[in-house]
TrEMBL record:
Family to which this protein belongs: Belongs to the GLE1 family.
Subcellular location: Nucleus, Nuclear pore complex
Annotated keywords: Coiled coil, mRNA transport, Nuclear pore complex, Nucleus, Protein transport, Translocation, Transport
Pfam families noted in UniProt: GLE1 (PF07817)
Organism the protein comes from: Galeopterus variegatus (Malayan flying lemur)
Residue ranges of coiled coil: 206-268
Major site of localization recorded for this protein: nucleus
Purpose: Required for the export of mRNAs containing poly(A) tails from the nucleus into the cytoplasm. May be involved in the terminal step of the mRNA transport through the nuclear pore complex (NPC).
Regions of compositional bias (Basic and acidic residues) in chain numbering: 106-116
Protein name: mRNA export factor GLE1
Domain of life, source organism: Eukaryota
């Protein structure tokens, strides 16, 4: 529309006007009253006014004043100066901050016009202001030029430093490259040196290998020669072994024949004053010995010269035994013949006595024992059945020793080490048994049972098993049984309460491994023959020390141990035996029968009461046995047991007292007081240290 076109033209004209070209600050209100104060304040001189007055005005005064100059010059200067002043003023007014801010008010216009008129009227002030502006311009130009020069100088310095850094970097790279080159050279020299040394070492190893190969070939040839030599020796040994085996069979046959002759001498029993049972027992031992030698040699393959020599010694002993028996029989017949002759002479003398003689000898009255009872003779030796049982146990022990003879006599260090490990594994757990808690006792039992069952057990930080050697089981069983008896001899003798934990473990092992129980009895009977009961008889020609050992005494350097120590050891072993027969392992089969129960204790008590008492020994053993086992026997046999106790008091006490000297009455008095107290209370007390159910729960 035409009106719209005129509007745009008007706006364009306003934009091109002086006011339209002015710059307006839209945030002048944010500056506060400072803007108005600048507009309303009086004009102020610049900070450079003093310098202009001192330096510029003196030069201007040298020029003539305007009144003295010609009109032309004044007009010229007037023409020149207004132009400068006008331009300066216009430039100043154009950039004055007060002009755009006061353009809208009439008051501000008036003041601005008044100030302009004042400036125009004062040519000197305009001149001063112009000089000030010129000075500021010159000063800014100098500052700009100085800044430009400083920047150029800094750029030159930066360029110089850059060049220096570049050169230093080049030198650094050169040094680094040189260092790498030196390191590479050193590494190559080291590698070359190592390769030379390796080649030298390789040559040395090759030389050593050739030398060792040469030595090995020599050893192989020597080993082959040794093998051939050993094979030849083995063949010769087997041939000699077969000859020895035939010789052993011949010796066994002869020994059996001689033993039959010993048995045949039973018909002369009435004539002999000696005990034929001792000859027969020894004969049976010699037969068993030779049988054991043959059995051991058949297992090992061939007999050794030592076995043959031992069999020959046994045969010679059998011959000597038969010879001695023959001599005894001959002496007995001669003695009988002499007695018959003497009896004939006595009868002849009696027949010559006058018929009227009334004097004659009266027969002596029978001897009376204490209490008016007849002193009937008791047995001195053990019953035949008991003696056979005792001999069987000893033979079994001897055979067990022969079974592991190869393990004990070997010189091989490895076999010796196995033997020591097995012995420690068997004996150390038994040594640890004491009055400890039931749980610990069960651990010991399980360890012993595992060892005997062939399972590996820990001993001394190493794993040990009887499978390490074919003879390991026999060795462990023998050493275990020996250790149990040793504990009774030492530990129980010193601490009576220890008999029960040791006995319950021994009973449990006996139940699961019967051979160990037989070996325990064999060791017990050998060290304490009174546990059979068996009183060894002194044989003619026997050394006194050997007889004392048979009785159970320890003889060292021809010195026999003291009686107190002997009784203490016998007491410990009898207490252990009395505890074994009444205890059964609580964690085993409850329905199983005790392998050696109270019936054997009753048999032992009956047999020892049927034998003549020994001074100091019988009273001690009876007291220890009844104190440990009396309560169990009382509960088992009841009335019969009390009859046995009365028999001991009424009949056996006088016999013990009759043979006991005044200095040995201590054991007898102790036994007598114990039984009298039991009869008074009608009860045998439970032994001290007996294992109660609470023991197994601990």
């Amino acid at each position: 529309m035409p009106s719209e076109g005129r509007c745009w033209e008007t706006l364009q004209a306003l934009r091109n006007s002086d006011k339209g070209r002015l710059c307006y600050h839209r945030d002048w209100l944010l500056r506060g009253e400072d803007v108005l104060e600048e507009c309303m304040s009086l004009p102020k001189l610049s900070s450079y006014s003093g310098w202009v007055v001192d330096h510029v005005l003196p030069h201007t005064q040298e020029n003539p004043p305007p009144s003295e100059t010609s009109p032309s010059s004044r007009s010229t200067s007037a023409l020149d100066q207004p132009s400068f002043v006008t331009k300066s003023f216009i430039r100043n007014s154009a950039f004055s901050p007060a002009s755009p801010k006061t353009s809208n008010g009439t008051k501000e216009k008036h003041e601005s016009e008044h100030a302009e008129s004042m400036v125009l009227q004062s040519s000197r002030g305009i001149k001063v202001e112009g000089c000030i502006r010129m000075y500021e311009l010159v000063h800014r130009m100098k500052g700009t030029e100085g800044l430009r020069q400083w920047q150029e100088e800094q750029e030159r310095k930066v360029w110089a430093l850059s060049e220096m850094a570049s050169e230093q970097l080049k030198r650094f790279d050169e040094r680094k490259e040189l260092k790498q080159h030196k390191e590479f050279q050193d590494l190559r020299e080291v590698m070359e040196k190592s390769s030379r040394e390796a080649l030298g070492h390789q040559e040395k190893l090759k030389a050593e290998h050739r030398h060792r190969a040469k030595i090995l070939n020599l050893k192989l040839r020597e080993a082959e020669q040794q093998r051939l030599k050993q094979a030849e020796q083995e063949r010769v040994r087997k041939e000699e072994g077969q000859v020895r085996l035939q010789s052993l069979y011949a010796l066994q046959e002869e020994v059996l024949q001689l033993n039959q002759q010993l048995d045949a001498s039973e018909q002369h029993k009435d004539l002999l004053k000696i005990d034929l049972a001792a000859f027969q027992t020894r004969g049976n031992q010699l037969c068993s010995l030779i049988s054991g030698i043959i059995r051991a040699t058949s297992e090992s393959g061939c007999p050794t010269p030592e076995s043959q020599a031992e069999a020959e010694r046994a045969l010679q002993e059998m011959r000597d035994l038969l010879t001695n028996l023959g001599q005894e029989i001959s002496r007995a017949y001669e003695e009988k013949k002499r007695q018959d002759e003497e009896e004939a002479q006595v009868k002849l003398q009696h027949s010559q006595v006058q018929q009227g003689s009334e004097a004659h000898k009266e027969s002596p009255a029978p001897s009376q024992g204490p209490g008016g009872k007849q002193n009937e003779d008791l047995q001195v030796k053990v019953q035949d059945s008991t003696m056979q049982w005792y001999q069987q146990l000893q033979d079994a022990s001897a055979q067990c020793v022969l079974a592991f003879e190869g393990l004990t006599s070997s010189k091989d260090s490895q076999i010796k080490k196995i033997k020591m490990d097995l012995q420690k594994a068997a004996t150390i757990p038994v040594s640890q048994i004491s009055t400890i808690a039931g749980s610990k006792l069960r651990e010991i039992f399980d360890k012993i049972h595992s060892l005997l069952s062939g399972k590996p057990v820990q001993s001394g930080g190493r794993s040990v098993s009887i499978t390490l050697n074919p003879q390991g089981l026999d060795f462990v069983q023998y050493k275990l049984a020996e250790k149990f008896v040793k504990q009774g001899e030492e530990e129980v003798a010193s601490h009576h309460e220890a008999a029960f934990p040791i006995a319950v473990v021994a009973s449990g092992i006996w139940e699961l491994h019967p051979r160990v129980g037989d070996l325990i009895l064999a060791h017990l009977h050998k060290k304490c023959p009174y546990s059979v009961p068996f009183y060894p008889a002194f044989k003619e020609g026997m050394a006194l020390e050997d007889y004392q050992r048979m009785l159970g005494y320890e003889v060292k350097d021809s010195k026999v141990e003291q009686q107190d120590n002997f009784l203490k050891r016998m007491s410990g072993m009898i207490r252990l035996y009395a505890a074994i027969i009444q205890l059964q392992w609580p964690y085993g089969n409850r329905q199983a029968i005790h392998p050696h129960g109270l019936n054997h204790g009753w048999r032992w008590l009956a047999q020892i009461l049927n034998m003549e008492p020994l001074s100091d020994v019988t009273a001690t053993l009876l007291f220890d046995f009844l104190e440990v086992c009396g309560n169990a026997l009382m509960k088992q046999y009841q009335v019969q047991f009390w009859k046995m106790i009365l028999l001991i008091k009424e009949d056996y006490f006088p016999r013990i007292e009759a043979i006991t000297s005044s200095g040995q009455m201590g054991s007898f008095i102790r036994l007598k007081q114990f039984l009298e107290k039991c009869l008074q209370r009608k009860e045998i007390p439970v032994p001290k240290g007996f294992l109660t159910p609470s023991f197994w729960r601990s």
